[in-house]
């Protein structure tokens, strides 16, 4: 009978280095380092598969190292391969946003490949409910969380929530999966500038995550670089709601001089802007160009069809799930942001000459 020693006879337990310090949750890698064994041996010990593979002395050493570090095993690749279905939560602020359905589909597709079920939870945009939902899931039998455009509690460390990945949000210490919204904004606003627009107003989302702040800062930077005076480029924020966007667009389109183009943070907001233009009898795109963001089906269903920047929503969800699996093994890093693609359509055109 072959008994795995993992070179145990040649190794002595190591002193903890990174492990056991600060607030970071100890991982299987930390246990392996302290016990002087491989991560595979740690996985065997905590999966109950040591018989005939790991000596009693090595198993005792691993368990002693785990106790020293306060290590609690979470779902990992080894348990998933064993066929035990795991559950992770995807928290979103608004289930009615069409973009999120594609994010969920991508996460579920990747989850099925790894034996993971994705549960969708909508705590809404009210901060207290978001924090309550996070705490409830952390206390429940759930293996990890993806937070879409929802920030973790202030000053929270990853160890406070367990394995957690932020999608379209950023917080220190947490891995993030992001769209390259700066590149997407540059494509959208750059296209409007190329058409000849200078009075490009911003219809922004009144939401805290970094992804929306990045859109606004990039819009301002591009206009400054083009020599556009700030007074020619007003900004109004709206709740992430069709009717709120309609009201905010009314404000922008009632200004003098009126903007010749609107850059909107999302296709949903752009649809609200289309409604406001119709209310005010402003023809699109003859007297007003409207640019969306995200590339949802809403942009195709609108009349006229919305120019937008296409975001790979399903890829974003799948990448979030794969990154969460890495976090569950204590090895997550933030991947590179996903690029976006400009899709010009009928809602944008060169500005109307002043003498027409």
UniProtKB/TrEMBL annotation:
Keywords: DNA-binding, Transcription, Transcription regulation. Residues 29-82 form the HTH lacI-type domain. Residues 1-29, 331-356 are annotated as: Disordered. The keyword Oxidoreductase does not apply. InterPro entries: HTH_LacI (IPR000843), LacI/GalR-like_sensor (IPR046335), Lambda_DNA-bd_dom_sf (IPR010982), Peripla_BP_I (IPR028082). It holds the Pfam family LacI. GO terms for molecular function: DNA binding. Residues 14-26 have a biased composition (Basic residues). This is LacI family DNA-binding transcriptional regulator.
């Amino acid at each position: 009978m072959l008994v795995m020693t993992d070179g145990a006879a040649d190794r002595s337990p190591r002193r903890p280095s990174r492990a056991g310090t600060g607030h970071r949750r100890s991982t299987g890698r930390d246990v392996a380092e302290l016990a002087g064994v491989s991560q595979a041996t740690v996985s065997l010990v905590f999966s109950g598969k040591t018989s005939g593979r790991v000596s009693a002395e090595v198993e005792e050493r691993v368990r002693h190292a785990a106790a020293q570090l306060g290590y609690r095993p979470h779902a990992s690749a080894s348990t998933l391969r064993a066929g035990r279905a795991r559950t992770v939560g995807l928290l979103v602020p608004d289930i009615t946003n069409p973009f999120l359905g594609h994010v969920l589909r991508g996460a579920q597709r990747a989850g099925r490949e790894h034996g993971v079920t994705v549960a969708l939870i909508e705590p809404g945009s009210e901060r207290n409910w978001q924090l309550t939902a996070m705490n409830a899931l952390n206390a429940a039998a759930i293996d990890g969380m993806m937070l879409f455009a929802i920030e973790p509690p202030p000053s929270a460390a990853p160890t406070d929530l367990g394995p957690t990945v932020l999608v379209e949000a950023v917080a220190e210490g947490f891995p993030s999966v992001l769209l390259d919204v700066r590149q997407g904004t540059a494509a959208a606003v750059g296209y409007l500038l190329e058409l000849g627009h200078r009075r490009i107003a911003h219809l922004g989302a009144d939401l805290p995550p970094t992804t929306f702040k990045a859109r606004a800062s990039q819009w301002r930077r591009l206009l400054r670089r083009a020599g556009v005076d700030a007074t020619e480029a007003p900004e109004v924020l709206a709740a992430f709601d069709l009717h709120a966007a309609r009201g905010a667009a009314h404000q922008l389109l009632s200004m003098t001089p009126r903007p010749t183009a609107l850059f909107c943070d999302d296709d949903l907001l752009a649809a609200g802007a289309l409604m406001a233009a119709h209310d005010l009898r402003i023809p699109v795109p003859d007297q007003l160009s409207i640019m969306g963001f995200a590339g949802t089906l809403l942009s195709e269903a609108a009349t006229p069809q919305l120019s937008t920047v296409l975001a790979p929503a399903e890829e974003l969800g799948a990448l979030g799930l794969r990154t969460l699996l890495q976090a569950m093994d204590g090895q997550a890093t933030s991947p590179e942001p996903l690029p976006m693609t400009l899709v010009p359509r009928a809602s944008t055109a060169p500005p109307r000459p002043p003498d027409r």
